[in-house]
Amino acid sequence: MYGGEKFLVGLITVILVIAGIVTIRSQIHYGSPFAVFGISLPEKKQKETETEPVIPTTYAKTTETVNLRPAPNSNNTPIKVIQTGQIVNVISIDDGWANIIDSEGIEGYVANRFLSHY
Question: Which residues form the domain of 85?
Answer without folding.
Answer: 58-117
